Prior knowledge:
Among the domains are: 7-48, CATH 2.40.50.100; 61-142, CATH 2.40.50.140. Helix content is 0%, strand content 39%. By secondary structure, the chain is an all-beta fold.
Amino acid sequence: MVFPGDEIGYSEEYLCGKGCYEKDGRIKASVFGEVSIDNNNKLLEVKPLKGEPVILHPGDIVFGRISDVRSNMAIVEIIAKEGEEKKSISALKNATLFVSQISDSYVKDISDAFRIGDVIKAKVLQVKPSLQLTMKGDNLGVVKAFCRRCKSTMRVVGSRLQCFRCKTFESRIKISEDYCKPIGIKEVE
């Protein structure tokens, strides 16, 4: 599974097909889905998720991308429900995550928790009248973060995040234990 913006190849090796785009010599996903590689034609594509849409309920665990950060809340674009990553989400795709629902401890500045583009794992608090999320609880939090300077994926180094490319350090208040693990694939121990 890949998220929009994930790097999936290089333009020197492959042509860019449906569901992806090329920027600075890198081919990136433009949709959430599965990568398809046609080695005969040297073509990369991302096939979007299909099938019967998933209907969300309170208590469901979801993955979402931060699309906007305001003073007391973030807007989250829901990407998938845990366990049903290969299905599309029903009509409700945007959710609200209030600063009070980020952590059990006090969060002064919401930008300490995540940045626009970060991918989070959260729990659905309510569906009606609006979709609301919480990151309070075990194993919820940021599952993928991007560098503020160069937009590359960051890795966990101690209790902070470090950019693979420019080596910049950043922090996030709540990083999930599933940070940078492939979604929908259980890790074999």
